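Reply to dn_fold:

You asked what the input looked like. This is it:
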Amino acid sequence: MMGRSRTGGGFVYLVGAGPGDPRLLTLRGAEVLRQADVVVHDRLVSPAVLDLAPERAARIDVGKRPGGPHVDQQDINDLLIDRARRGWVVVRLKGGDPFVFGRGGEEALACAGAGVPFEVVPGVTAAVAAPALAGIPVTHRGLSAGFAVVTATLANGRGTDLRALATAVDTLVILMGVRRLREVCAELVAAGRSPSTPAAIVERASTSDQRKVLGALADLPDLADAEGIAAPATLIVGEVAALAGRLAPTVAVPAATFA
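and this is what came back:
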């Protein structure tokens, strides 16, 4: 039989699982996972993180697969509300941070509208973790006074219009852009970003499969194609990307397991 929340009624936790390495999960995230009756999780969440939930807890994969079947967002919202109304502790486990392109805002609004109590547990987003683990500071005195995080693809499948951002900030961090990498880089150059601007793409940040490709903005698509870079990956554009060669971590990224 499923357990009850500490308040005696159902509760939803919207938890950020971090970029991949389970050790980047927050202490609060681990704490609520250990209370879970149901874990509703994304596709790329590490099995080591899922293992923190009690053995009795149901685990429901609602991850979206590129080009494949996926669970509709409304169905996910309904699932969270239904399980919470049964009096269960529901952990909605998301890669990165729930509110950074994780649709956590939509799920929080659904809970609020249904009168279901919830808590947001922030997580480490790939938007800052991927650059950092590749040796790229998103801000750096003299090189980058600010950065913007943007998705390359909108909810309707159309590409994001990046022209206004191309030269507006020193550093651009672009998520979900592997399929549109050539188009994105060309659009930034056409909008005024120098073709020689340092750029990098980091695949599967924080995991044992992490890879990075560095180069000039105009050349990066060819370089990434040559290396077979695939999703999930994070694109970084700006002078700070040139620091990757000097600030690369001295310790290899460990396997995604807990000690």
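The mean pLDDT is 91.
Hope that clears it up.
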